[in-house]
Amino acid sequence: MTHGLDAAHLVMDRQQQLAAKQFAECRRTLKAHQQQLLDLQRYREEYRQRLNADSLVRRGQSLQQFHRFIIQLERGIEQQRQTIIALEKQCEEKRQLWLQAHHKVKAVENLRQRQRLHEQAKADRREQKAADEISLRSRFKP
User: Fold this and answer.
1) What span, in angstroms and rounded, lies between the C-alpha atoms of 106 and 12?
2) Which domains does the chain have, with CATH numbers?
3) Which end of the chain is more exposed for a tag (fewer CB within 10 A), N or C?
4) Coil, helix or strand for 57?
């Protein structure tokens, strides 16, 4: 039975490692998108500050172009926020899958440990029985 548990442990451990890898990759992707959002927001603010500084110089068509560009930035920022929300959900799902796999590995490890203890107790009882038999035989031998 120990061999079956060993095989199950190996399979579950691989599944846990894969789940952990996928969770870590999702977290890296999420962090990259969060950084992109910060960059977009910073760029928007810098651009707005430039407009405020140059507002007397800007006229007519260039001002309209500036506003269109700001609107495009706002759309990009909103899309990035939506992407982050979706990635956060995806990462949470991957975290849950990893936790489930981790709990399964721990359960199999506990079963393996109990199996080893049970096998050791059986071996100890056999050894004790053999020692008792030898002791009894030596008492009754003339």
Assistant:
1) 10
2) 2-140 (1.10.287.1700)
3) C
4) coil
Are 48 and 71 in contact by the 8 Å Cβ rule? The answer is no
Could you tell me the two tokens for 132?
């008792």
Q: Is the pLDDT of residue 57 over 60?
A: no
pLDDT in tens, 79-107: 999 999 999 999 999 999 999 999 999 99
At residue 3, the pLDDT reads 76
Provide the pLDDT for residue 83.
Answer: 98
Nearest by Cα to 86 from 97, 96, 78:
78
Label residue 98 exposed, middle or buried (CB < 10 Å: 0-12, 13-18, 19+).
Answer: buried
